[in-house]
What does this fold into?
Amino acid sequence: MQFETTVPSLEDKIVQRATVTVLNAIYEQDFLPCSYGFRPGRSPHDALDAIRRTICGGPIAYALEADIQGYFDHIVRSQLMAFVERRIGDGSVLRLIRKWIHVGVIEDGRLLVTETGTGQGQVVSPLLANIYLHYVLDEWFEHEVKPRLRGRAAEIRYADDFILCFQYREDAERVLPVLAKRFAKYGLTLHPEKTRLLAFGRSALPSHPEAPQPATFDFLGFTHVCARSRRGRFTIHVRTMRTRFRRSAKAVAQWCQQHRHDPVEHQAAALNAKLRGHYQYYGRPTNFRSVWKFHRHVQRVWHKWLTRRTRGKPLDWARFKQLLHRHPLLPPRICHAWATTGNAG
It folds into this structure.
């Protein structure tokens, strides 16, 4: 059984882009600072910086790592439209949005129309998904939950990925079941195995180096680890998630295999473009080791497939190093600065 989303026409994409530009101007006045995904002038790295500022610069001791199952496919359209109508009164715009979100999927050649989802792949979908969680999560947590808590709390969200931070465990334990009920009201479900509460912060770091280390959490492709700076202060180190690293490494290996007969200079240029993109995303402070490992992997896999294309004269490491001298691969680099905090060390 095969499913595929119906593809919007060029005209639809143009109209959607114009509509998104107008709606962004409206909703940027409403969206809260905790939201970073699909917003002008904001990026995943701003969200990552916010995590470090929030946890290192405050009394945060617990993190709630949450995962929404199939978020984009489970948005309830009637409730989404009710949210949109709170701010948008233009009937023609509302009719366009209703048309776009009711795009169906093709199953074995038949068009099926469901009652949920926003039609991933459409220009307007990320904004609509942001609007939904703005009302379902952001406003609710900021205005209804936080005032009822005993201690400090914060939310950092990028699209449907979010972390809730708490000063006290009792606050986090109170919020978790209420959060699940809140999401259920709007057709959303927290993944039972990927949603967990963990001690994470200055107080979670053991005083003895041989004591068990606190748990880690994953967010936006990085594993976050409690650590100490060179000055002995609490800080957060990040490393590339193992699943992301393996996925990137596999993609490079497949590319080298498929293009091993291309001119070497073309291969070097393409691999450098891949390395540049990898460094630009994963090149964060404290993640140099992971970036260096990826660089070494690219070298090894390139050597492997260049050797496979030769006949009778293997490309040994000495000759490969000469090739690297003529066509060097970009060295590992850190492309992002530290996020400043009052207590950064």
